[in-house]
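On clarity, I found the account of how folds are encoded harder to follow than it need be. Since the whole study asks how a given chain folds, the encoding of that fold should be made plain. For the editor and my fellow referees, an illustration may be useful. An entry of this sort, consisting of the sequence and the corresponding backbone structure tokens, reads as follows:

:::
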Amino acid sequence: MNSASGKRDLIVLVADKNMEAVINGLLSRHASLGIRTVTSDIRRHPEKDCGCRTGGIEFLSAFANQYEHALLMFDFEGCGVEAKTAQEIENEMEEALGNYWGDRGSVVVIDPELDIWVWSESPHVDRVLGWADRTPNLRNWIVSQGYMLPDQEKPIRPKEALEKALYVAKKPRSSAIYQSLAERVSLARCSNRAFIKLKETLKKWFQDP
């Protein structure tokens, strides 16, 4: 809590439990992010990605006097808009959020979906997904199955690739997987635009002095 204002630091509205797990995992790594310890509350929208897009601004508007900052995060795929890019949606929604929060709010739209953040060359990914010591390794297997070309950094359909990898490894899909990866994988490894924006936003707001 900000002792000067009496407000908690951050409220986050996300589309689902997996995003909640990722945010929890990331905020636990304040040293890696270069930020101070943050007091936060995370809420999930019952209508998931589409609900975040259509109702997220209104939801967060009610908390502008209770928190220092607000973050709205959801997937581009499933949000109900195909004629605009993820960044265009972000820009429009941040402008709308600014009517209530000024420069204290931010919107992160992940293109195409959260699962894109899973795919890193970190060895932690193989371990968390149940692929430690398997041959071929996870990345080569993903390529062999046609989910990714050899020169690509991420699968074209990241969610489907993740679900198939977990199925083959006989590992149930759960939010704990996302939190475990967020707690372990190097934050410098992911070059996804939305992930970089999230890191930079948190550092701007909560940079450790």
Summary: The mean pLDDT is 94.
